[in-house]
Fold:
Amino acid sequence: MKSMRVALAHDEEALSPIHEGICTSPDLEREIILGGQSVDGVETITSFVDGDADAYEPLIAGRETVLEYDIAHDEDGFFLYLRQELGPEGLSLLNALAQDTVVVVPPIEVRSDRTIRMTVVGHPTALSSVFVDLTDGVTMDVRWVSDDVTVTEPSVSDRQRAALQTAWNVGFYEVPRRNGIETVADELDCAVSTASELLRRGEASAIGRMLDGSP
Structure:
């Protein structure tokens, strides 16, 4: 089995009304779908929204397809329970990409940058084909792939971790810097180019996880 983290970028025309509202409102940051299901054309989800409930509620209140919703306020946002009818061509986000051997793993992050980020787990051959037929206006960016069944980005390798720890210990990351890359290479007993590559890859992994903003 493999795990894969993807970001689905949407053109403006491809956004759902709720996602469009998250993207255009300055008071909404993202919606994190924690779980749900689709039965007989009705989708039921529970989620946490980073933002103001007063800005979000107009996106669902009075909408004909919305059957029921409930909002519970929290310090940093609010929790949402939502049941809505799916259109004739609509599919639950939790089920749309599922195949016989592929599972979409919550949480699913609906972001204000017009992307939806999620993790899928399954057989490698199935993962390679699950995103072949994307809706018009939607493109995919693979954030990471892991040979393990996981919902978080793989950590840095042992060698990268050792290089980062060594660099930290010798003051490479201090301001001003106490020792340079040559000292790191000496401590690791490797070439300067090797030490530099290990640090760059380790830093890229750590920064990538931070910028990905995985909930």
The two ends are 23 Å apart (CA to CA).
